[in-house]
Design brief:
Shape: globular
Distance between the termini: 73 Å
Number of strands: 16
CATH class of the largest domain: Alpha Beta
Largest sheet: 10 strands, mixed
CATH superfamily of the largest domain: Alkaline Phosphatase, subunit A
Strand content: 15-25%
Order of helices and strands: HHEHEEHHEEEEHEHHEHEEEHHEEEEHH
Helix content: 25-40%
Radius of gyration: 23 Å
Strand order of the largest sheet: 7-6-5-4-8-1-9-10-2-11
Structural class: alpha/beta
Length: 471
């Protein structure tokens, strides 16, 4: 801080000795530096829509998450760009539909030596854009955007990394293989230094926050909770022991663990005088998993393109720039975070021609009255499933149901009533919109077992329904 103040004093001295024209330029530069907010994106893993109090959870205690939600803007129609882990993260961090670069699938676990499987280095991530704005950057937690070392976070614009490369990890930090090992900047962390990953990731984030540095910071904090396996500490299990269903109780303890740690981060910001000028974004990477999560009132779960698979708990706070206590009801998507955060940081998202999201701040602050998006798209496994939302209509080519479905979300937000048979013109219009959008996409660069798993799940579902009818 002393060095920072000295540099400001030095610049002020320069202003005094400058011509009037140069004075204004230097004053503007100072204002830009002073106003740059710190940024923390908190991403949970497979968390359901109704697994937070601000969306109606009554069984899982999430007081810290809910407190932050009340201090900013809650996105009641907040979507992600894909219904499961890796592709969703690729879209979030690049600000582009991940199908544009063929990232439609999770990484297969038998190709960790292949540096072509994952988000390519040619794609610019928000971390790189913020580095250009003078930020120090950190990725903490689950990566899942490339198992090969060439594609790890340090190659994608993150100065600091603490986490694991793969898609799943036990919570005690016990290494099973190269992609299920905790690293700090590519160096394996000894297991005896780890306790419970949700706590460990938070401790690392707090260290990064409190590291004395004149630069603003960006932290991408990607908890692996509440993704399976279901592991929780005694403390968090105690906080959810009132839930009598064991599976839900353990899942809830994992969510509560995230909440307790979000509270630690909030307290750290307050204690260090950083809270007012720190942007915090909270969201899940996709809808809640099929077991133990709660996506009500929406239909479906992780992997599906029903609302329950792609609509997530989502909010943003920034005391210096966003009025608290807001609910924004128009549809937004995780792709919007890149341009929004970049502009907050003093950058110019309009110059990043590849971006497909919108800067949300003018909409949140009611400077722009129309909707951020008139149309949105989703594609899974190269079109094995896809969806289009245009206005109030949503088309869903569902492999689960082996049918193209149509819903009017204004009248049927819960997607109970398929109206495809009565609206062939709308179906044709949305199909054409999808074809035009998909023409700019690449075929998947690799495949995962999602398609196979979908068919297995639906077959089991139908068998159980038939069994219940017979009895």
């Amino acid at each position: 801080m002393k060095n920072y103040l000295l540099s400001i004093l030095s610049i002020l001295f320069t202003i005094i000795s400058c011509s009037s024209g140069n004075k204004q330029k230097v004053q503007n530069d100072i204002q830009n530096e002073i106003k740059k907010p710190n940024i923390i994106v908190i991403l949970t893993d497979d968390q359901g829509w109704a697994d937070v109090g601000f969306n109606g959870a009554t069984d899982i205690p999430t007081p810290n998450i809910d407190k932050l939600a009340s201090e900013g803007v809650v996105f009641s129609n907040g979507y992600v760009s894909h219904p499961y882990c890796s592709p969703s993260r690729a879209g979030l961090l690049t600000g582009r539909y991940q199908a544009r670069f063929g990232h439609d699938c999770n990484m297969p676990y038998d190709v960790e030596s292949d540096n072509t499987v994952g988000t390519p280095l040619s794609e610019k991530m928000i971390s790189e854009a913020l580095q250009e704005q003078g930020y120090r950057t950190s990725a903490i937690g689950k990566w899942h955007l490339g198992d090969h070392e060439d594609l790890w976070p340090n190659a994608h614009g993150f100065d600091h990394w603490f986490g694991f490369p793969g898609g799943g990890m036990n919570y005690w930090g016990i290494s099973k293989n190269k992609i299920n090992t905790i690293y700090r900047n590519r160096i394996p962390v000894p297991e005896e230094e780890l306790s419970y990953l949700t706590d460990d990731f938070t401790s690392e984030a707090i260290d990064f926050i409190t590291n004395k540095d004149e630069k603003p910071f960006f932290i991408y904090l990607a908890y692996n909770a509440p993704h399976a396996p279901d592991h929780a500490t005694k403390q968090y299990l105690e906080n959810t022991k009132h839930i009598e269903y064991a599976g839900r109780s353990i899942y809830a303890a994992m969510v509560n663990g995230v909440d307790v740690n979000v509270g630690k981060i909030d307290s750290t910001l307050v204690a260090n005088g950083m809270k007012d000028n720190t942007v915090i974004v909270f969201l899940s990477d996709n809808g809640g998993r099929a077991e133990h999560a709660d996506n009500r009132p929406y239909r479906g779960h992780k992997g599906m393109l029903f609302e329950g698979g792609i609509k997530v708990p989502f909010y943003m706070t920034w005391p210096n720039g966003i009025k608290g206590g807001q609910v924004y009801n128009e549809p937004i998507i995780s792709l919007d975070l890149f341009p929004t955060l970049l502009n907050m940081a003093g950058g110019d998202a309009a110059k990043e021609k590849q971006l497909e999201g919108k800067d949300l701040l003018p909409y949140i602050n009611n400077e722009i009255k129309n909707k951020p998006h008139e149309i949105m798209f989703w594609r899974s496994v190269g079109g094995f499933e896809y969806a289009v939302r245009k206005g109030n209509y949503k088309l869903y080519k569902s492999a689960y149901k082996n049918k193209t479905l149509l819903f009017n979300l204004a009248k049927d937000s819960l997607e109970r009533y398929d109206i495809s048979d009565k609206n062939p013109k709308i179906i044709a219009e949305l199909e054409e919109e999808y074809k035009k959008w998909d023409a700019k996409n690449l075929a998947p660069g690799w495949f995962d077992p999602h398609a196979e798993n979908v068919l297995k799940e639906e077959k089991k579902f139908e068998q159980e329904r038939e069994k219940s009818r017979r009895h």
